[in-house]
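Entry:
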Amino acid sequence: MGDFWVFGYGSLMWRPGFAHVETCRARLNGFHRSLCVTSVIYRGSPERPGLVLGLDRGGSCVGLAFRVPQELRDEVLDYLRGRELVTNVYRERMVPVRLKDGGNVEAVTYVVDRTHGQYAGALDQETAARIVSGAVGRAGPNEEYVHNTVGHLKALGIRDHWLEDVARRVS
């Protein structure tokens, strides 16, 4: 079967948490990074939900692809499923990504399930900022999540103007 790839578009990019032998900048077409997942555990609560990132359909997303040795496949997939499928708001998918060097690979990633109750839909920046402001979950304040994400993306040379605008608007 050979090595396999994982596509990260959010915190997996700077905190993958799994062994890999190569990291490449990559583009996924047909999906975009979005604060479209209502968070009731990590960055919000049932009483005061927050928002976290998901891959939603349409557009494209620049992220990172990680090459994982075949012998670690089961271990890494178990880890990713435990991390990403906590509430089943994401669906595991194999998607084609284009690496910065021009090569194409199939990568596992996690796409938002638009039929799930936690799917927040397409929000404008003002609405997203209002939801994020003041929400706190097990992993901390939602504002911190948004600012941290924008900071890490910028450090990687990846611009996300929509998310940057949300970050400017949060309290």
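The mean pLDDT is 95.
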